[in-house]
């Protein structure tokens, strides 16, 4: 237990104040994520999953408690430093893909490297490799509108992976896809995880969640369960 | 993100909407083009005036005929030649500040040498004329005393006339030319003094009277059309002028209270005043052109604000992928700068084209100096920075989470 967790949340709360009304989207949540894990985050709509994800992804800061990335309290970093960490250490995948419509696939994939100060030549070379890894190299010069939803999501995953991030954060990555395409995307995530990539994935689909070894459940902003299959199974067998 | 990447992103964004980009920069294009054109025409006009001032010579006073009364009726200035050779003599002898003076009669005529002929100004004068105007000879000599008093058949050519009548290797000195059928020997060719000045042929005043203008009814034996006089020093101009005025009033018996029948002018001072006027008008026009730049800048700001709103989601994506606030600001600032620089470059090209067209069609002298171009470009960069800053700043301040939520 000496290994430092990649991410650690300690009594994290996030309260929004609009027109004097306070809404606590995340309440007193604590957990760690270790290198190499794949975690599903589940919960009903409005339970605070995206809010939690934004804090893990350094897009937002907790109102109370602390988020640590590799031991560093992210609230103590400057805004610029958090941005740079997002470029190098975090890979976002969104439900609606969020590709830049006016750039083709390879330019979209290369985009995070612009903010890592990588030269154009190297950016494009690495984008090609990453597109190859998600099976989209043949669409490198297509624009998002020329791609199907599943293809766009693959390109978006390539973009999330290009800077070799510590963690990939996916907010309902299959939410806009049919079940077959969704399964393919999920298989891609599973394959990535087998290579050691840490992944946190928000999902509504219990079927998807069962494929992740660990599932965190939220309700009304509170953590209601945190189960790891690999941990439970041996315990169960030990008990029986 | 580097400046270069900022420009690359900006160019990419602007290329996607070329018509809108062009319309956005139109104000800058017009403003810069006007500034360049106004500068080109203004400095062309100044150059021309400066040349004229130089060609007159330093500290020169010019005396021309003034009002003449005949039976109580005031005739137009210059309708009668009121100055005489006697006046020239008196000015030279009685006013100590005057170094040189000469009277002139002038008209136009055809000058012929072998097959070539050229229409030019014939100026009958004395060697003093060249002294007053500091006009040196390129070759040959001035008129001799005998030629001046005895209506010698000699001529001194301005460089334009020499060039028109003689082939490049030909020495005009000693050659015979003809003016109004009178054969004259070329004794001198003058230095160049400026395109407007060099197109002239000088003959002795006596020659002009006897052989060319003698029959003209409004000319006395003694008359000259105008007198030019050189004052020894700059500080003596006003004094010399007053002395000439009182001397001539006395000589011409102008009754007290009546207008002079002559005018004493300081042509260089008059032209300098004109130069000042040109500068004022040019400045005014530049000020008007700057308003166009201002309008152009506001139009850029307007379009940039719309663009930031339209691209809020893009901004959110870029922030999520690691773009810092300053990267976003740089991106939009670069866009405004590219718009202004491109507009400025098109404006400079347009301004140069326009002023060259004006030069050709209206025959004005225009001069395009790098200073005006630099100034115009500096103006457009400043416009881009000033009017691009607010939208860029606004873009950088957007919350990435909120930006990602927009459609
Ligand atoms: N910017 C905000 N201002 C005020 N309240 C907010 C804001 N963002 C989220 N909330 C509130 O916080 C709560 C949690 O929102 P969040 O988006 O994290 O839910 P979620 O679990 O991702 O839901 P879904 O499954 O629908 O995406 C909701 O009640 C929401 O209304
Ligand atoms: Mg959500």
UniProtKB/TrEMBL annotation, chain A:
One term of GO molecular function: ATP binding
Keyword ATP-binding recorded: yes
Name by which UniProt lists this protein: Putative ABC transport system ATP-binding protein
InterPro entries on file: AAA+_ATPase (IPR003593), ABC_transporter-like_ATP-bd (IPR003439), ABC_transporter-like_CS (IPR017871), ABC_transpr_LolD-like (IPR015854), MacB-like_ATP-bd (IPR017911), P-loop_NTPase (IPR027417)
PROSITE patterns for the chain: ABC_TRANSPORTER_1 (PS00211), ABC_TRANSPORTER_2 (PS50893)
Alphabetized Gene3D superfamilies for the sequence: P-loop containing nucleotide triphosphate hydrolases
Membership in a protein family: Belongs to the ABC transporter superfamily. Macrolide exporter (TC 3.A.1.122) family.
GO cellular component, one term: membrane protein complex
Keyword Cell division on entry: no
Domain annotation ABC transporter: ranges: 7-239
CDD domains reported in the protein's UniProt record: ABC_MJ0796_LolCDE_FtsE
PANTHER family hit by this protein: ABC TRANSPORTER ABCH.1, IMPORT ATP-BINDING PROTEIN
Keyword terms, alphabetized: ATP-binding, Cell inner membrane, Cell membrane, Membrane, Nucleotide-binding, Translocase, Transport
Biological source species: Bradyrhizobium huanghuaihaiense
Protein role: Involved in beta-(1-->2)glucan export. Transmembrane domains (TMD) form a pore in the inner membrane and the ATP-binding domain (NBD) is responsible for energy generation.
Short name of any one Pfam family annotated for the protein: ABC_tran
From TrEMBL, chain B:
Location(s) in or outside the cell: Cell membrane
Keywords: Cell membrane, Membrane, Transmembrane, Transmembrane helix
Ranges of residues in domain ABC3 transporter permease C-terminal: 287-400
Transmembrane segments: 21-42, 281-309, 330-352, 372-390
Membrane topology (UniProt): Multi-pass membrane protein
Domain MacB-like periplasmic core: 21-246
Keyword Transmembrane helix in annotation: yes
Gene Ontology cellular component list: plasma membrane
Main location group: membrane
GO molecular function annotations of the record: transmembrane transporter activity
Domain of life: Bacteria
Family: Belongs to the ABC-4 integral membrane protein family.
Protein name, as recorded: Putative ABC transport system permease protein
């Amino acid at each position: 237990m000496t290994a430092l967790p990649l991410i650690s949340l300690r009594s994290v709360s996030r309260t929004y104040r609009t027109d004097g009304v306070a809404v606590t989207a995340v309440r007193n949540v604590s957990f760690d994520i270790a290198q190499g894990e794949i975690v599903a985050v589940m919960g009903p709509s409005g339970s605070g999953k995206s809010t939690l994800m934004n804090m893990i992804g350094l897009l937002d800061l907790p109102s109370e408690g602390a988020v640590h990335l590799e031991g560093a309290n992210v609230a103590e970093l400057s805004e610029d430093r958090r941005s740079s960490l997002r470029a190098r250490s975090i890979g976002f995948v969104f439900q609606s893909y969020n590709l830049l419509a006016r750039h083709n696939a390879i330019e979209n994939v290369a985009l995070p490297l612009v903010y890592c100060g990588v030269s154009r030549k190297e950016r494009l070379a690495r984008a090609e490799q990453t597109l190859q890894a998600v099976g989209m190299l043949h669409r490198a010069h297509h624009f998002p509108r020329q791609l199907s939803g599943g293809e766009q999501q693959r390109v978006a995953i390539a973009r999330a992976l290009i800077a070799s991030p510590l963690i990939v954060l996916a907010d309902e990555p299959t939410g806009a896809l049919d079940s077959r395409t969704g399964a393919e995307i999920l298989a891609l995530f599973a394959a990535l995880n087998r290579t050691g990539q840490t992944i946190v994935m928000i999902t509504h689909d219990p079927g998807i969640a069962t494929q992740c070894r660990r599932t965190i459940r939220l309700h009304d902003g509170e953590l209601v369960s945190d189960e790891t299959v690999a941990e439970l199974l041996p315990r169960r067998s030990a008990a029986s | 993100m580097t400046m270069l990447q900022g420009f690359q992103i900006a160019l990419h964004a602007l290329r996607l909407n070329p018509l809108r980009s062009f319309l956005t920069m139109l104000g800058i294009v017009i403003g810069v083009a006007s500034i360049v054109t106004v500068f080109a025409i203004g400095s062309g006009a100044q150059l021309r005036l400066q040349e004229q001032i130089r060609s007159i010579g330093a500290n020169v006073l010019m005396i021309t005929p003034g009002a003449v009364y005949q039976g109580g009726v005031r005739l137009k200035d210059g309708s009668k030649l009121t100055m005489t050779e006697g006046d020239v003599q008196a000015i030279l002898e009685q006013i100590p500040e005057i170094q040189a003076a000469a009277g002139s009669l002038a008209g136009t005529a055809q000058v012929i040498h072998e097959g070539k002929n050229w229409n030019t100004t014939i100026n009958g004068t004395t060697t003093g004329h060249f002294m007053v105007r500091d006009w040196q000879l390129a070759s040959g000599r001035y008129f001799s005393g005998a030629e001046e008093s005895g209506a010698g058949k000699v001529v001194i050519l301005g460089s334009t006339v020499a060039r028109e009548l003689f082939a490049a290797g030909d020495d005009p000195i000693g050659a015979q030319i003809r003016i109004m059928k009178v054969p004259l020997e070329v004794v001198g060719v003058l230095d160049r003094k400026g395109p407007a000045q060099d197109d002239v042929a000088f003959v002795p005043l006596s020659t002009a009277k006897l052989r060319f203008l003698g029959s003209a009814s409004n000319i006395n034996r003694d008359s000259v059309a105008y007198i030019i006089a050189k004052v020894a020093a700059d500080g003596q101009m006003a004094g010399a002028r007053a002395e000439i005025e009182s001397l001539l009033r006395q000589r011409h018996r102008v009754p007290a209270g009546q207008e002079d029948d002559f005018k004493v002018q300081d042509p260089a001072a008059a032209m300098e005043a004109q130069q000042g006027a040109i500068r004022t008008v040019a400045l005014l026009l530049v000020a008007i052109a700057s308003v166009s730049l201002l309008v152009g800048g506001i139009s850029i700001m307007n379009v940039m604000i719309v663009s930031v709103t339209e691209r809020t989601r893009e901004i959110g994506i870029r922030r999520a992928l690691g773009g810092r606030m300053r990267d976003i600001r740089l991106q939009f600032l670069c866009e405004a700068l590219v718009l202004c620089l491109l507009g400025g470059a098109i404006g400079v090209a347009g301004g140069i084209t326009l002023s060259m067209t004006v030069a050709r069609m209206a025959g004005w002298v225009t001069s395009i100096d790098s200073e005006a171009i630099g100034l115009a470009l500096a103006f457009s960069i400043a416009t881009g920075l000033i009017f691009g800053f607010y939208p860029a700043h606004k873009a950088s301040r957007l919350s990435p989470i909120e930006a990602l939520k927009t459609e």
